[in-house]
Queue: 3 jobs
Job 1
Amino acid sequence: MITVQALLGRPHLHIQSLWCPNPLAKLRWVATSEQINPATFLEGNELLLTTSAGNPEGEAGWLEYAQRLVSGGISTLGFGLGFSYDTVPPLLVQAARKTGLNLIEVAPDQSFVALSQEVARMIEVEATSGKYKLTALQQRLIQASAQPRSVDMITGELARGIGARVIIRDKAGRIVAQASAPTLSADLGKFAEQSWEGFSETPSLRSFESSAGYCLFTSIDALGQETAWLQACWNVFPHPWQQQALSQAGLLIASALANSRFVSSYHGRLLQRAFTLLLSGELGAAQILTEMAFPDARVLSGRYVPVVVAGEEGDLRALAARVERAVTKTMPPPLWRFQADNLEMAIPVAALPLTLSNFSRKEFLALRAGVGQDYPISRFSAGLPGARQALRHTGNTQQVARWGEISRSGLLQVMGRETVAAFSQQFLLPLRGEAELVELLEQYVATKGNRQQMAKTLGLHRNTVAKRLEKLQSKLGINLAEAGAQASAWVALQGREP
């Protein structure tokens, strides 16, 4: 189908828009009628031409006429001048504005027959051209499906071929692959996200239209596996052949996804094993498996950073795939494995900023990551405990924590606030209601056990201090002369609730 916009773009037709709120409205044919209620004889999406529209009476009559057209699926009315009217009735213009009806003025020297013939030619040209374009695109898509990373290759070829932004999402809405034609407007990406949100709320709606563009959703059944979604967005309403290309591309994408899952499973097992060998110090064996997973990648070398990530498994796998695609092109390859429901990654130092930048992406905001200190690849295992510890310091207010920063901030940070608070409560429990003993403990820690200084600060005799210390140690069950007991007392006092 052609659009009103395409028709208005032909100046030789001597037509002009008086009110056109929907320029992307589809036109499947042209009809002519002078009846007051022509919609009953039409199928919808026609350009309706008239010279009098049955001459409705007054404002209410014209409004009722426009409402009948809109209700009948007629989005565009062409009003011919020179017969019943020399100008388009102002009441009709007013009615069109109220109902959202596209209204076109047809000049007196423009015959309805010639206008109908032009629309028919446009439809025929579109159909013929579309067939050739679709056939050529099909061949390119088949070739892309035979390439490595076939899902990405098909997505890119499809986006260029139909002039759209194409996104493949898994069932949970995570982006598997995406590509855009170079001619699209910048605001189409925002419209694509808005359309996905609307689709997520109402899956029965497979198309979305706004001033920014038009978006379609097509389901993909990857050979009985998890359903995926193919999303295509255009700045203008797509031609029929472009829409047809989506369903045909969907079959190739389904096959590519199924193959990708098999390859990914094998690939993942190689990386898991390589990671385990690396931790065992068997760098040579890890290198052999890494070369099998990344035939074109550089060797394992240089310094690597351990990163431990927590979150939903699907999000973790999507993150690993994204990091892998970005890193292996120019740097030594990353390694990763799943361990205790977490994703553990070995990232080349140069790739760390790129890796961490993913955590600001919308689809990864629920993930939390602990970053360890970098080590030479041969000693990588030394940094992993720090990354695991750093992960424990993440939460609602901190998505990424670095072990280097935590370790420099002292013992309390290393232990964690919740752990310290729990220890403090348990340690000081025997002193509940004993304010003077708590005060004595504070002074003991502050003066490092200097009884003379404690007595002076508290205003007590040294013998009184000595007796209270005996009572304090008895209640706590510790000997404050021991370094470990002093450290415990300090931690307990620091962890008290304010």
Job 2
Amino acid sequence: MDIELSSMFVIFGGTGDLTKRKLIPAIFSLMHEGKLSENFTIVSIGRQEKTSEQYREEMHEYVKEFSRFPLNNKLWDNFIKRIFYKNFDFTSNNQGYKDLDLFLEIMDNEYSTRGNRLYYLAVAPEFFEGIIRNLKNNNMVCKSIGWQRVMIEKPFGSNLKTARILNNNISKLIPEEDIFRIDHYLGKEMIQNILAIRFGNSLFEPLWNSNYIDNIQITSNELIGVENRGAYYENAGILKDMLQNHLLQMLTMIAMEPPVDFDPESIRDEKVKVLRSLRPFTLASLKEDIVRGQYGAGTVNEAVVVGYRQEERVSRESNTDTFIALKTYIDNFRFGGVPIYIRAGKRMDTKSTEIVIQFKKLAGINYYKEFDQIGSNLLVLKIQPEEGFYFQINAKKPGNDFKMEKVELDYCQSCKYLNDSPEAYEKLLLEAIRNNSSLFTRWDELEYSWKFIESIEKGYKNDVSNYPNYAAGTAGPTGAVDLIEKDGRQWWNTEL
């Protein structure tokens, strides 16, 4: 095993849901598969009073529930002895950082992690700068021995201005190459597969342009509401929770030019070009090309659920968006004139994240025109809950008459690999210690995505919406259908 993979995972926010449900189970799965060096340990930091023994008992239940591998006693015994819990107020206690550094040095010697530390900030965004500043002031980053990297969860800023301030302040403390900004969608297998499908097949690359593509659709529908995140969602809404990060990142993977190589910076350079080419919204285009929504009470999976305004820690007069559908364009040579339709919503009728590439129809000539049976060719990339893709083509239906039917050439990744497909956080943690930044967002990617979001928000300042405008468990506001149908197109709702 590469000694560079020797590492200490230092998790700020060690008692939070993200750590319990995602991070600790992900690290266990990596050890289960032999992806980690024998020389690793985990130090979780939180403000709750508890011992390492108590913390380990808690983690046992979460790993049992959320790891994709069954617990093995021998493996668990090896894992549990590497987990430690430290209690201190990481928001202000400078002495706490000194004590923490001393403890990490002891762990470093005991587990031979060679000074390599991955600091994971699984905390609220307002704590990012303070933690990094304390790490810097106490010589816990930028050390001469080993490497020290910082993983930052979204959201990075609340708007363009705050994002710039946060980035400027952090960049004065640690270099950009040591900052790993997370968008967990980039860790999903099918998101990574986009580049393989596009650039690994001669079938698609010649067709991947405005000459052959009619439109692109990106959909992310969720059955769940805001659950216990009402306070966060009131400030974020669907724009900042989904569009600014996940959905725009998916778009960059679909629309980027072939990188000169697979160096992380080459890939991210091409993604930035896409974000720079996104057409900003004007007051006129906002009215024509965006539909907003907020869910009311309804029924989801036969269960009666409350509306958004009745959720915990949500204002009873809230105008926060829980749904958005929009049409935009990428104003570059490859995709000029191709409409990009994006929609995302909570409390929808299905759970589905997918990308649909609709190719242009053949000209209505010869017998095709006579029978009018030519459907659209579609390339459908299924991100979740199922993973896979299929290509929809036209073929003759068996029989004496010449009739056409749609045929799907499909690849169900979830069916083939079952639980062998790693979770997003497994991939992201592993690539961070490998120092592969291609699955993380660079600052200029964030800057241009915030600029795009800002062009939308500016037009909303004086807009008071008539909410709620769709019932939970439905397909969203009727305006979303009108948005695409007025262009003579339709939303594709697909299944593997």
Job 3
Amino acid sequence: MSDFPYQTQYLTVVVVGASGDLAKKKTYPSLFQLYCQKYLPASTSFSVVGYARSEYTDESFREKMREAITGKGDDAKIDDFLKNCRYQRGTAYNDVDAWKQLHQDQVKIEGGGVANRLFYFAIPPEQFAPSAQAITEAAQTSTGWNRFIVEKPFGVDLESSNQLAEDLAAVLEEEQIYRIDHYLGKEMVQNLMVLRFANIFLAPLWNRDYIKSVTILFKEDIGCEGRGGYFDPAGIIRDVQQNHLLQILSIVAMEPPVKVTGPGAGEFIRDEKVKLLKCIPELTVDDVILGQFVAGNGEPGYLDDETCNNEYCPTYALTKFQINNARWAGVPFIMASGKALDERKGEVRIQFKNPPGVETMFDDGQGNGECNELIIRIQPGEAVTMNLNMKTPGFTNAPVVSNMDLLYDNKFPTLSKEIPDAYTRLILDVLRDNSSAFVRDDELEAAWTIFTPLLHALESDSHKRLPIKYPFGSTGPKEAMDYLNKLYSSPETMARL
């Protein structure tokens, strides 16, 4: 059936916190897609068990899940999938008696052969360790593997992250823990390593001698939409920069791993990411430009949302990094991320230096063209673009930029419509024991080491400062745009940021 043994063995997926929004919107739809694409064992060899504190019967819970997956496949497949779903209520996430009952029920269903269990923690981080403790006492399989997916946030600073890691390490082995960052499951983030390491013409250029700057953009065109309870204490730095965007930076900048695919590749990749992160100095308040959106273009400002009360909370941040190693010394790495901006976009922009002597070669007053750029668009509309300088048509030799675009929708008209959701891809990676797109404990520690001094400084009385205001639907604070304008001297390039 498959090269992956789990598909010929019994599989139980336990969704802890199954009554919450994450389970409904992401976990169950992803499991259903894996079922439809035959990445789960045969329908007689898998179970999906929802565990939560809410009052449900098996049947009422199936109907709740039916709502989540209706329209994502034909009715017959939905019915078949739901037959394998059941519900276990517990009075708490660490209710040992409830976990014993779940275990006893599953042993009967599994039939006595090799049985694997995946526990998906869609619960608050403070419940990770207590729940894991109860599971190890009462609900682990003894015939196969036990793996645990945990959702972010993984702490709010270095101290809390280390404490969470210590609590989990007391009951689980690191090899059992899969810290999920859904950005690492996105198609173009996965493509970064292939693009970097499978193209010979890029290899000699990927360093400080040829690259002028690297900018990682994350733009949202929506505000907080009632999520102030989460966003007020987190802010944009904790929300996307310390995790999603730093992961992208580490893939862009790390040294080539021994392997990218195959057995052991996950550890080789994560080793290189950790080495890279340890080369980044701790951030200070001088490394950031912070903003908060106000009303504009007919939309309300941040503080107009009744759930948002923190006037110091940044909804925009431009953060400047240096990487102190031989490959990248002196090259600015920039993260620019924000809410309530002019568009929704995620991309990596690699700006190359101009060729030596180009300023004197083209001295006709028409300009020397733009710097070459390699752009990896993560969302929306996956694409790779190279900006090259070409001759302006007509009686001049002045350079003009030309875009060479690889749009996934054009290149792969069929396959692009089948790109899996990030959660679907990552759950499959766990089943296949591929850890490369998950965050290891030492990687998490290195990431928080970079950001924690900055966050603590911004939250201290001595450095606390009001973010710069920018209107809803704009490109962000003027000061941030001024900085990027110096980095990208071409107005044409700036217009695309």
